[in-house]
Design a protein that fits this description.
Layout lengths: L1 E6 L2 E3 L3 E2 L5 H12 L3 E6 L21 E2 L2 E3 L14 E3 L3 H9 L6 E4 L7 H14 L5 E3 L2 H5 L1 H7 L4 E2 L6 H11 L11 H4 L18 E4 L2 E2 L18 E2 L2 H13 L4 E4 L8 H14 L4 E3 L4 E2 L5 H10 L4 E6 L3 H6 L6 H13 L7 E7 L6 H14 L2 E6 L14 H9 L6 H7 L5 H16 L4
Parallel strand pairs: 1-4, 1-8, 8-9, 9-10, 11-14, 14-15, 16-17, 17-18, 18-19
Antiparallel strand pairs: 2-7, 3-5, 6-7, 12-13
Helix pairs in contact: 9-10, 10-12, 13-16
Length: about 450
């Protein structure tokens, strides 16, 4: 039996390879292999694909880099955005060629990215259905979960799977393919499955990507009003230590140097994490660890900071979002300025330099003005670490979404492309596109001057 797994293109105004890998799809590859499937795996977002133009394989720091892209037609409502609208990832013709060369699968599984990047997903599905009309195609991933109805009506997939995979998902695969994958897993088996990175191996059995991604926990104990995490899971769970160490041993075997975490609350179970970090230090893996999702400051005590440094965490990202007391409180209270300052002190004492720590500031939240963002910047400047601006994307189902005007809510709900952070800047009177450009310029100048 054969399965075709596809990570489709991302269509957006910007997209950098900031360690992008379809972690869930890699776990599904493992699951299907265990059920006897042969796997064809197409990752449109793999810069290191043998058929990707060579200039896009160039590495920036820690394996990051730029994606190949093709400019595509903007939907009418994006017209006021002056940026080019692009399909990032594999050249279109290369994807077609790959599909042509693939043996007919018994099932196709396509994942999806952010809600407002669904056009790339739809394009891939259209091509797949044209070639393999009778093969059942299941769409999963972030967009499929957050915009289930939209995906059911418009994606062209035969079935849409919201949320994590579970025993019901296995039943579905068994039903549509006639396979007999065992439902031997407990409730949280998704955490127990290892990602199968061998799908990226070249002909010589080498893994030629300078990084991998990992996830040790699932969920988050907080409920920030702007965040969509609770729409995926209400629980917080962590993986078994032995599974994590097997995964890390594999990365060592594949000569991977950089590992990026996809966790939302990596440090929450501090005893568990500290124990793992000690094990990593003892095993002397030599990895560079990255935290693109931002770490919770509240858990960075002196001991944690030292362990993070010794274990190989570099270019650390931590979360503040706002320095405004009221905004911190009404959005969920995950951090205060004191907690943030304490975390930065501990990190610096442990040996992290100012240029090694980047703090996320959210810009454009409902009720957050340009002046408030300026204050946040001034506050972080006094602490002296790098600033990373994250623009707010309005996601239906979150508490902050309900703070929008009813007509805007309806508009964004009906068309997920309008949930794009850049589009939102064009309709947000409290924090506009022009103000955002000003802030970005200011921050670039500031960050470039941090050298110690
Ligand atoms: S702490 Fe982070 S992951 Fe958790 S709810 Fe808040 S923003 Fe989301």
């Amino acid at each position: 039996m054969r399965a075709l797994l596809v990570n489709p293109w991302i269509t957006d105004f910007k997209c950098h390879d900031f360690w992008i890998k379809p972690f869930g799809l890699l776990k599904i590859a493992n699951l299907l292999k265990s059920g006897g499937f042969e796997i064809d795996f197409i990752d449109c977002m793999n810069r290191f694909d043998s058929e990707m133009p060579d200039e896009y394989k160039k590495e920036k720091e820690f394996g990051k880099g730029e994606f190949y892209f093709e400019e595509i037609k903007k939907p009418e409502f994006y017209k006021k955005l002056t940026r080019k609208y692009k399909r990032y990832g594999l050249p279109y013709d290369t994807f077609l060629k790959k599909i042509e060369s693939i043996k007919k699968p018994d099932i196709i599984l396509v994942t999806s990215n952010m809600t407002y990047t669904y056009e790339g997903t739809f394009e891939a599905i259209k091509i797949l259905k044209e070639k393999f009309l009778l093969t059942p195609l299941i769409l999963g991933g972030i967009y499929a979960t957050l915009c289930f109805k939209h995906a059911e009506e418009k994606s062209g997939a035969d079935m849409v799977w919201p949320g994590n995979i579970n025993n019901k998902f296995i039943q579905l695969v068994n039903k549509v393919t006639g396979s007999k994958i065992e439902q031997q897993f407990k409730e949280n088996f998704f955490l127990g499955l290892l990602p199968d990175y061998t799908v990226y191996f070249d002909r010589n059995g080498n893994y030629n990507i300078p990084y991998a991604v990992t996830k040790w926990t699932d969920g988050c104990p907080f409920s920030c009003t702007y965040c969509a995490i609770k729409l995926f899971t209400n629980e917080f769970n962590r993986r078994e230590k032995k599974d994590i160490l097997i995964e890390l041993d594999n990365y060592k075997k594949y000569n991977i140097k950089n590992i990026a975490f996809y966790d939302d609350a990596l440090l929450y179970r501090t005893v568990f994490i500290k124990d793992l970090l000690r094990e990593i230090i003892k095993n002397n893996y030599g990895f560079n660890f990255h935290t693109p999702n931002g770490l919770h400051c509240a858990y960075i005590d002196e001991e944690m900071a030292v362990l993070l440094k010794k274990a190989g965490f570099v270019d650390l990202r931590i979360s503040l979002e706002s320095s405004d007391y009221n905004l911190q409180k009404i959005t969920g209270g995950k951090v205060t300025n004191e907690i943030f300052k304490n975390a930065v002190n501990n990190l610096k004492k442990a040996g992290f330099k100012s240029k090694d720590i980047g703090v996320y500031i959210l810009a454009g939240l409902p009720g957050q003005t340009f002046e408030m963002v300026l204050k946040d910047i001034e506050f972080v400047k006094r602490i002296g670490i790098k600033i990373k601006i994250a623009n707010y994307s309005p996601i239906p189902g979150t508490t902050d979404f309900l703070k929008l005007k009813p007509e805007i809510m309806a508009e964004l709900k009906a068309e997920p492309l309008k949930q794009n952070e850049f589009y939102f800047l064009t309709i947000n009177n409290d924090y506009t596109w022009e103000q955002n450009e000003e802030i970005k310029k200011m921050i670039t100048e500031y960050n470039n001057n941090i050298n110690d």
